[in-house]
Fold this sequence. Notes:
Elements: H1 3-14, H2 18-37, E1 42-44, E2 48-55, E3 58-61, E4 68-71, E5 74-81
Antiparallel strand pairs: 1-2, 2-5, 3-4
Helix pairs in contact: 1-2
Amino acid sequence: MNKGELVKAVAEKAGLTLAQAKGAVDAAIESVSASLKAGDKVVIPGFITLGVEERAARTGINPRTKEKIQIPAKKVVKFKAGSQLI
C-alpha cells in the first residue's frame, strides 16, 4: 500500500472526502515525524511502537577496496510490531 492507497482507504472507512483524508494522513505523518525528531517514543497499542536510538560510530570496510573506513554515529528509528499488526 502506498500513500495514495492509504488516503483512499481512510476516506472510504471514515466517510471523508479525498482532500479531508489526505489532510488527516499528512497530519498523522507529520505528528509522528515531529515526535521522533524530538526523541520521543510513538506507541499505538497493539499496532506499532517507534523509537529513536543512537547508533555508535564504528569502523567498517569498503567491500570494493577492502579499505577501512570510519562510519559516523547516527540516530536510527527502531520499529516494533504490535500484537494486532498481523
